[in-house]
Amino acid sequence: MPRLYVPATFEPGGNVTLPDGPARHLTRVLRLGPGAPLVVFDGNGREAGVRLADVTRKQATVVVEAVWPGAGESPLAVHLGQAISKGERMDYAIQKAVELGVAAITPLYTRRGDVRLKGEREAKKLAHWQAVAASACEQCGRATLPPVHPPQTLEAWLNARDEPLRLMLHPATHSGLDAADAPAAAALLIGPEGGLAPDDVAAAEAAAFTPLTLGPRILRTETAPVAALTLLQYRFGDL
Predict the structure, then answer these.
(1) Long-range contacts of range 13-19, CB-CB < 8 Å, 24 or more positions apart?
(2) CA dist 178 to 20, 182, 217, 231, Å?
(3) Running DSSP on this structure, what letter comes out for residue 75?
(4) Which of 72, 74, 59 is nearest to 22 (CA)?
(5) Strands (E) located in the chain
(6) How far apart (Å, rounded) are the C-alpha atoms in residues 101 and 115?
(7) pLDDT 10s digits, 50-103
(8) What local confidence, expressed as pLDDT, does residue 22 receive?
(9) DSSP 8-state code for residue 123
(10) pTM of the model
């Protein structure tokens, strides 16, 4: 059954007009007609069972039959600070982070990062990343859409952190996962392709970040969050 992100208010018996993107997908790609069942979620933790009621070339309307609280949220709220990488690498990191239960994502400008976005280009890229996150929620069954925040400098992101567990992926002898009790929230810093610069590491350590090592092999910037989030969810979350 198709499952779509629809940022709207769901009330049993009410009608909801689908956004253009989901409407085109249902009517032109899946070729569904009136009466077809599907599931929608609002991104704030609620899902609804609906049926297509009115389909035209310009829009599609559904009737809400039932509403229920969504599932799939981890007890560990991880805020991922991901150094911006080029093209599909960043898309992959965001997609897999959402699938692994991340609570929020902030793209970061770091010293060794080679991507710099400004103005309209940054706004378009942010909208694209948010769409990647929404699509990942549709696929993995989450009803809460984790925000992808506007890009920030590493310094600004570090200054805003107050999570009880703060980790940066960096070669080290300390694992960083020896907390006796499971924290409710964590911050995870992933550097760019060239790794975090010494000044970035020093700034993170000054912000109470602990180096986290994942073994002797160097991981790509889009692989690192997958491995680290899997480890965190296994240790403190719901894997």
Answers:
(1) 13/63, 13/64, 14/63, 14/64, 15/53, 15/61, 15/62, 15/63, 15/64, 16/40, 16/50, 16/61, 16/62, 16/64, 17/59, 17/60, 17/61, 18/59, 18/60, 18/61, 18/62
(2) 48, 10, 21, 12
(3) S
(4) 59
(5) 3-5, 15-17, 37-41, 46-55, 60-69, 77-83, 104-109, 152-153, 165-169, 185-190, 210-212
(6) 26
(7) 999 988 777 889 999 999 999 889 999 999 999 999 889 999 999 999 999 999
(8) 83
(9) H
(10) 0.93
Task: Bin 140: left if φ > 0, else alpha if -120 < ψ < 50, else beta.
Answer: alpha
Sheet-wide strand order for 37-41? 3-5, 37-41, 46-55, 60-69, 15-17
Residue entry with tokens 């991981």? 219
Question: Mean per-residue pLDDT for 162-186?
Answer: 81
d(CA 176, CA 231): 11
Judge whether residue 176 has pLDDT over 70: no
